[in-house]
Amino acid sequence: MSQATTVAPASPIAGVGRLLRSPLTARIASYLFLLVAWQLLSLYEDRFPPPADVFGFLWIEVTGGSHGGIVRGEFLEHFAATLPRFTLGIAISMVLGIVSGVVIGGSKIAEALLKDTLLMLVALPAIIWAFLTQMWLGLGDTAVVITTFLSAFPFVAVNVVQGIQAVPRDLRRMSGAFHVSSYRRVRHLLLPAVTGYLFAGFRFAVIIGWNAVLLGEWFSSSEGVGYQARYWYDANRYKGFVAWVILFIGFIVLIDRVALVPLQRRAFRWRDTQVKQAQRRVEGIDVAVTGA
Amino acid sequence: MATLRVEHLNKTFPAIERGSDATTAIDDLSFEIGGHVFVSVVGPSGCGKSTLLNIVSGIETATHGSVSVSEDGSPARLGYVFQEPRLLPWRTVMQNMLYVLEGEDVPDRARDYLRMVGLDDAGGKFPAQLSGGMQQRVGIARAFAVEPDLLLMDEPFSHLDAITARSLREQLQGIWTEAKKTVLFVTHDIAEAVQLSNRVLILAPGGRLFADLPIELPYPRKASDTEVAMAQAELLRRFEEMQEETDAARATDVAS
Amino acid sequence: MSSVPVARASRGGRPPSLVTRRRVRGIAGLVIGVGGFLLVWTLLSALIFGPFTLPPPSRIGSVMWEIVRSGQFIHHFVPTILRLAYGFGLALLIGFPVGYLMGTSRWWRAFFHDMTIVAGSIPGITYAVLALVVFGIKILGPILSVGLVSMPYVAINVAEGLDSVDHRLVQMSDAYGRRRASIVRNVLIPSVAPFAFAGVRLSFALAWKVEQLTEVFGSSSGVGFQIRHEFEDFSIPGMLAWVLLFVIFMILVERFVLAKLERYLFRWRLEDRP
Ligand SMILES: Nc1ncnc2c1ncn2[C@@H]1O[C@H](COP(=O)(O)OP(=O)(O)OP(=O)(O)O)[C@@H](O)[C@H]1O
Ligand SMILES: [Mg+2]
């Protein structure tokens, strides 16, 4: 390897070989591979539309170009319906998650009584909330918001509890002994310890909440991204269906990679020993998902 | 007992980044040892001692030159005590021993050598349950248990406290006198080299052989013996000589 | 040196009263926890929602008992578990080689990097609905969605495990003339195992949710199908009974089988012990 950096390529063929071996080529190859696999899949199962159809459709949905009588610019309209529900659901789950996390993490009695309830809530699949809220409230915004918040808030709470319990006990005791004022205790002890966990909780809330809002819209709404996917599915227009699936995947991946992951990385900066763990969280793998 | 022949050995590590220089760890090194000898290699940190043992053991390959280890013409069996214990953390002490052993009576042999280092009842423990010194002793027992023709030891006592190190040194002397091994022992501790070995190779920075000194004193030796102390003084003198020479060389380098 | 005997004494010779006390505390914690759960639920049902919106635990309990007694539970449980097992088998079968490639070659790491990263943030519903379109309500749908959800986690963790292999141990093995197969068995596999296991545990928790979701969307048997069925019957007790039966089962598997197994397999990592 070191030779490769010090010795100039002798022939164009060597240069080509090196290009093929570069990580960039690997990345490009992986996207090509996915496209080819998708194309093959669509040949094998003719209900599954080929990439060209789906991307053509997507183009129209996003730009609103006119094509074959399909309604234009649906993209904005439906995201405009979904995003307020999503934001509200996440906001409520953050508030309630922090409150219940602080209560459970701060008091032994509350922990004994409520921790298992919390873990049960973490384990419940979001679909249950989608069904229940539909039965309770029928179609409409409220059902979707509640589904989102009920699915996401246990993850916030679990992370806050973890964060509070991560404050070393002797440190807490030490500040008690030195009569550190409670403002400073919160400011210098609790907040730095909890912030990282809070960000992790926020990120989970967003990812899990997105899944929940889509499910909620699939079952109890007549507009929004989730509803739109269902609409095309029920109409047997798989081209539209897959296009919307791509839209909702693209949305969350973008949010996660562009906003949440860098944020979380910053928040975990101070914990040197746990950098590795933070990275693993960042890669989307974390124990909080299991509720363990 | 084996014969180790090192001829015009050179090891150069290539530059890792653009702009940095390649490192010459060993430069034109030749020597031969064989029979019931205890040879120490001493030299300042970074002068290529571990690299030498790695090449002899086959972990690394030489850039130029050759190394051959033979036992009456057939390939020799090696034992290697590393600078740190290097035990498999997921295996018990006994399993660690068995991992490197082959042939008959293997468990008995493992037990014998564990007894030799005073760890008869540690066989069922995991390395993490032992202290650093105990782990290092397991490493020593493992190297002896393969009943090697050539035993390589890389600063085996440098991480240990003085008391443990002293007692292990004495045990090592005893085992070596009894077990008739060829030992190549790396250290940067001159007192240790003088106490244990009957021949000392001094490596200079850059991996050149600077001196090859015999130490003809009867065993068992104690660190406090007068003869040992005198031999130490002599060796130290040679070391200083080497230091001066290196400094002079560096001065001319800078000047030119 | 002096700290060693002390450490050993506290580890091996722990007074029995402490062990039993810990166990008693564990059981008490469980009782309080479950009691707390039922209490919260009963209060919510009686004071806020009313028995129709949120049936009390006693009602759900009797429905659960009915489901188990009638044999319905086994009938739908078995296909669900089997699909989970097949899907998981698939994930391991593909995840291990992919993880191996990622852990040993820079090129393959770059190749799989984006796919595995994106897989971590894709909503679960994606797998369910796509499996539905591609495979209809055939048995393959749930199996594949389980496989697709779990694979990236298995692969990433195997790769990370390979990264963590201490190459000095490999050198040691070389110096002692160990054969390749022996090194794989004694050094590589034990180094990767804790990572792989963590990956499996993690993806397990995700996989069964996605599997249920897939069954809700398109299947003609299984727990998820029953949940959907009860939903269409407007039976809240039936729905909750099914979901709770399954969740409780999964929590038990997680806590008692996987966690215990992990403790046992990796008992050499003493510092991880309480
Ligand atoms: N894998 C490697 N790649 C590049 N350079 C190396 C490598 N291993 C050793 N070196 C270099 O070779 C030289 C000799 O290293 P070596 O480990 O043999 O020293 P040593 O004499 O054992 O020192 P110490 O007494 O500190 O253990 C050093 O300059 C070191 O930087
Ligand atoms: Mg060294």
- What does the largest sheet of chain C look like? none
Name the structural class of chain C.
Answer: mainly alpha
- The helix/strand order of chain C is HHHHHHHHHHH
Rg for CA atoms of chain C: 23 Å
Shape of chain C: globular
Figure out the total of helices of chain B: 7
Low-confidence stretches of chain C: 1-14
Strand content of chain B: 25-35%
Percentage of helical residues of chain B?
Answer: 25-40%
| Total beta-strand segments of chain B | 10
CA gyration radius of chain B, whole angstroms:
19 Å
Largest interface: A-C, 63 and 66 residues
What do we call the CATH topology of the domain at 3-77 and 182-215 and 223-255 in chain B?
Rossmann fold
Please describe what this structure looks like:
The complex is a heterotrimer of chains A (292), B (256) and C (274). Chain A has 292 residues and is mainly α. Chain A has 14 helices and no strands. Chain A has helices spanning 2-6, 12-20, 23-44, 51-63, 74-106, 108-123, 126-137, 141-166, 169-177, 182-220, 225-234, 238-267, 275-282, 287-290. Chain A starts with a helix and ends with a helix. Chain B is an alpha/beta fold. Chain B has a domain at 3-77 and 182-215 and 223-255: Rossmann fold (3-Layer(aba) Sandwich). Helix content of chain B is 38%, strand content 26%. Chain B has helices at residues 49-57, 93-100, 106-116, 132-145, 162-179, 190-196, 226-255, and strands spanning 3-13, 23-34, 38-42, 64-71, 74-75, 78-81, 150-154, 182-187, 199-204, 208-214. In chain B, strands 6-7-8-3-9-10 form a six-stranded mixed sheet, with helices on both faces. Chain B has a four-stranded antiparallel sheet with strand order 2-1-4-5, with helices on one face. In chain B, helix 2 (93-100) packs parallel to helix 4, helix 3 (106-116) packs across helix 4 and helix 6 (190-196) crosses helix 7. The longest helix of chain B is centred in the last third of the chain and has 30 residues, at 226-255. The termini of chain B are far apart. The model of chain B has no long low-confidence stretch (mean pLDDT 88). Chain C is globular, with a radius of gyration of 23 Å. Residues 1-14 of chain C have low confidence and may be disordered. Chain C is mostly helical. Chain C has two domains: 15-51; 55-270, MetI-like (MetI-like fold, Orthogonal Bundle), CATH 1.10.3720.10. Chains in contact: A-B, A-C, B-C. Chains A and B meet through helix 1 of A and loops of B. The site of magnesium ion has 4 residues of chain B, from helix 1.
